[in-house]
């Protein structure tokens, strides 16, 4: 259930359903789902089903070792701190859905350009970990202007944390996950 909450936070436009068994998944129109986050045990017991859907399947592993991962599938190491898990999910998303390809349509309100070009620049530096002072120096603007942009960005997007802002920036292609 913790992974479900993380996925809903990382990719808020997605609906995340959980199933107690493989039979429950297969009886609920499985091909309508964009991805399956599934334990290795379930994949191994139902390998044919998941091999046919290997691009949609993300195998949840308890070890980061290559020897413990299935080479035919995307793997997600879940036995790590939440911040690293979110980063790995964002990396998977960015690789598989660059520029939003293969994702469901964004709600119209989110398709609109909400931020100005300068706010996008400031946001990019914020999520890369720069301080307000460093951002001001890089953009040759005052510290107060950076603080004002920062407040406007958070207000316009309805966000309360830098981690939420980071997810937004990566999901919209404003910053590469590798620069965070």
Provide mean pLDDT, rounded.
Answer: 83
- What is the string of SSEs from the N terminus onward? HHEHHEEHHHHHH
Helicity range: 40-55%
The total of beta strands comes to: 3
Q: How does the helix and strand content classify structurally? A: mainly alpha
Largest sheet: 3 strands, parallel
Number of helices: 10
Q: Whole-number radius of gyration?
A: 19 Å
- For the termini, the CA-CA separation is 26 Å
Shape: elongated
Low-pLDDT sequence parts: none
Q: How are the strands of the biggest sheet laid out side by side?
A: 1-2-3
Question: Can you walk me through this structure?
Answer:
The protein has 180 residues and is mainly α. The protein has helices spanning 2-10, 22-26, 40-45, 47-51, 82-96, 108-111, 117-127, 132-139, 143-157, 162-171, and strands at residues 36-39, 57-61, 74-77. A three-stranded parallel beta sheet has the order 1-2-3. The mean pLDDT is 83.
How do the strands and helices of this protein lay out in sequence?
Blueprint (H helix, E strand, L loop, with lengths): L1 H9 L11 H5 L9 E4 H6 L1 H5 L5 E5 L12 E4 L4 H15 L11 H4 L5 H11 L4 H8 L3 H15 L4 H10 L9
Parallel strand pairs: 1-2, 2-3
Helix pairs in contact: 7-9, 7-10, 8-9
Which short descriptors sum up this protein?
49% helix, mainly alpha, 7% strand, elongated, three-stranded parallel beta sheet, 3 strands, 10 helices, 180 residues
